[in-house]
Amino acid sequence: MKRRSAVNRILLALAGIVLLGTGLMILAGGFDLYRRWSLPPPDGWPLTTPRDVLLADVDRTRWADEGWWWPAVIAVLAVVTLLAVWWLLAQLRRTHPGALSVGGAHAVDGVELREGALGDALAADARHLSGVHQARARMDGSSRHPEAHLAITLTPDAEPGPVLQALRDGPLERARRSMDRPLPARAHLRLTPHKPHRAE
Q1: Strands 112-114 and 132-141
Q2: Buried/exposed code over 121-157 (b: 16+ C-beta within 10 A; e: otherwise)
Q3: Which one-letter DSSP state was computed for residue 69?
Q4: Residue spans of the chain under pLDDT 70
Q5: d(CA 192, CA 132)
Q6: 89-94, long-range: CB < 8 A, 24+ apart
Q7: Quick one: pLDDT at residue 146?
Q8: How many beta carbons lie within 10 A of that of residue 178, not counting itself?
Q9: CA distance 168 to 70
Q10: Whole-model pTM above 0.70?
Q11: What confidence score (pLDDT) does residue 110 get?
């Protein structure tokens, strides 16, 4: 899992838990469930009966006449809005290279290779290597700095070292030559599940 994806999921999960818990507590007060089911409301929670309000008149107007109050409220709301917009733009920013020009610095106009096609070609090429049972590949990064991520499933009798060497000298080298640019790569290796052999 990529770091940004993990951070997004954690933030969304925390926000969802807080909003869900707050909503359930508000509904419990609105439907008078604390009294009906003899449930003790949380300490300091203001909404315990249908007639309760979140902020009393005194609380809502306590600082309204202070000169710093409205600038502070506006500043806090502006910061929250800017953070929300920044987060939204970060999600929309492209994390995949998209179309890659073939030939690098000497690319021919109009000749491009889609990231999915390159990933499929890498995976298909890797499947032909000795000791490889299955292979999948995807492209990350930008169009100027693409990165290859490969998931390789080895046969039960394969050795990781020779497979990685063949992967580097074969499919990855051919992909680098076709694009005429560096192509950093990460490979995740795992063995094909198989029954244990009994030694005699």
Answers
A1: unpaired
A2: bbbebbeebebbeebbbbbbbeeeebebbbbbbbeee
A3: H
A4: 1-5, 55, 91-98, 101-111, 194-200
A5: 9
A6: 90/4, 91/8, 94/142
A7: 84
A8: 16
A9: 62
A10: no
A11: 56
